[in-house]
Design goal:
This protein is α/β, with parallel strands linked by helices and 463 residues long. It folds into 2 domains: 4-215 and 404-461, Metallo-beta-lactamase, Chain A (4-Layer Sandwich); 220-402, Rossmann fold, CATH 3.40.50. It is 33% helix and 21% strand. It is built from 15 helices and 22 strands. The structure holds zinc ion. Zinc ion is lined by residues 63, 65, 164, 185.
């Protein structure tokens, strides 16, 4: 009854999620994410397609984030022609995110090639093109939450809500009498817009994420109050507020909370711009999938209100409209990507904001080492933008509570929900070493045994 699980990414790190489950009769690929890190290493890792991934009989995608989906176009272009199953909302989000990613890859290659041409070095190719991203879109097949389907001989799968972003799923595989749970990225309970994570019944084997295996967030309710106080202060002094935010998930959650605060009369009305074409497209996908919303969001719909649009809010699509925001004075708020300030429109808003001590920058998500966002959080004195130094004089606040990831308490709650004696093996992925090891130690104290922290390319026989 041989059953083998091999990890090809997101092992002892948070990006590049992918693994293959091999039953001898058929094999299933789960995720094919982009590795994100230093440029040279990223290109090397992302260019390589493992044989086992290409040879799989079917594929699953837990949610649309690029670290889980971002290399699918390259896989398909390399000859993978099988179906990729995910929830309908994930399909819609993945299509726009992969196109956006392809545009970035093409722009990056073009930029590199200008430099390479000057130095007479070999030209680089984008990881994949817009055309390849479009073609990959045709491989997706919808599978609704709670619908069980045999996607390859002897392998049944069911999606359960992961409460992480719109359409996100935990996956239950039923194969050779075993019930294998993959948490995907797990959300934290009480996040705005999406439902809370569901409990998947009775797994024998658990593959769990561990992004915040050693960290706890303060409750979402407190975050709303903190945001209110911060924004009221900023309003009183006429501040321009810039919020770097990921285009999918964080932006919609923030817009939802701003709508609530202003609607409840807890904040004076101020103009808000969401300056990101991808955010606008993603928000349109959110509007198309109310089946994924939580109760509070449904209450807005019941009152005929759009939870992602209200009269104070404008979505900015065109570049010249984005530039026009440079000349607008506060109080006002601009939400723009990228979330880690590494590129995108947020960079020119930072340039126009950070030198004035009256202004406010709110950091809302995880900032990877080496990114501009991380340096801003660490409080450096000057910031390098477009090749020039600017003093960082404005107020900077970090609001991690809207993280779409479960924290240590939430992850432990998941494990407390199962009987450690009935779970034969646990695999911890999608976390840096310290976070993963801390979660491993904590669940071992709960009585779990056979806890594995896989290396890249490491395979395991399942019990
Ligand atoms: Zn994610």
């Amino acid at each position: 009854m041989s059953l083998k699980l091999t990890f090809y990414g997101a092992a002892k790190t948070v990006t590049g999620s992918r693994f293959v489950l091999d039953t001898r009769r058929s094999s299933i690929l789960t995720e094919f994410g982009l590795f994100q890190g230093h440029r040279k290493k990223s290109i090397e890792i992302n260019s390589r397609i493992p044989e086992a991934a290409l040879a799989a009989d079917a594929m699953l995608l837990s949610h649309a984030h690029i670290d889980h989906s971002g290399n699918i176009p390259r896989l398909v272009a390399a000859g993978f022609g099988k179906s990729i199953y995910s929830t309908p909302a994930t399909i819609d989000l993945a299509k726009i995110m992969l196109l956006d990613s392809a545009e970035i890859q093409e722009r990056d290659a073009e930029y590199m090639n200008k430099k390479h041409a000057k130095r007479e070095e070999a030209l680089v190719e984008p990881l994949y093109t817009v055309e390849e991203a479009q073609a990959a879109g045709y491989s997706f097949k919808p599978l609704n939450y709670h619908e069980t389907r045999e996607i390859a001989p002897g392998v049944k799968v069911t999606f359960y809500d992961a409460g992480h972003i719109l359409g996100s799923a935990q996956v239950l595989y039923q194969v050779k009498g075993r019930r294998i749970l993959f948490t995907g990225d797990l959300g934290q309970p009480r996040l705005p817009v999406v439902r809370d994570p569901e409990r998947v019944p009775d797994p024998d084997i658990i593959i769990s994420e561990s992004t915040y295996g050693d960290r706890t967030h303060s409750p979402v309710e407190e975050a709303k109050e903190r945001l209110q106080v911060l924004l009221q202060d900023a309003y009183n002094r006429g501040a321009k507020i810039v919020v770097p935010a990921f285009a999918v998930g964080r932006t919609q959650a923030l817009v939802f909370v701003m709508h609530e605060l202003m609607g409840e009369g807890r904040l004076p009305s101020m103009p808000i711009w969401v300056d990101s074409p991808l955010s606008l497209e993603a928000t349109q996908v959110f509007r198309k999938h109310p089946e994924c919303f939580d109760k509070e969001t449904w209450e807005y719909l019941d009152r005929d209100e759009d939870p992602f649009g209200f009269f104070r809010l404008r979505y900015v699509k065109k570049v010249d409209e984005s530039k026009a925001l440079n000349h607008i004075s506060g109080p006002c708020m601009i939400i723009a990507s990228s979330g880690m300030c590494e590129g995108g429109r947020v960079v020119h808003h930072l340039k126009n904001t950070i030198t004035d001590p009256n202004n406010l920058v709110i950091i809302t998500g995880f900032q990877a080492p080496g990114t501009l966002g991380r340096r801003i959080v660490e409080g450096i004195e000057t910031v390098r933008l477009y090749g020039e130094e600017f003093p960082l004089n404005c107020q900077v606040e970090v609001l991690n509570e809207y993280s779409a990831h479960a924290d240590k308490t939430d992850l432990l709650d998941l494990f407390k929900g199962y009987n450690p004696k009935k779970v034969k093996q646990v695999f911890l992925v999608h976390g840096d070493e310290r976070q993963t090891a801390a979660l491993g130690a904590a669940i071992s104290e709960l009585g779990y045994q056979n806890i594995e922290i896989p290396e890249v390319d490491q395979g395991f026989e399942l019990r």
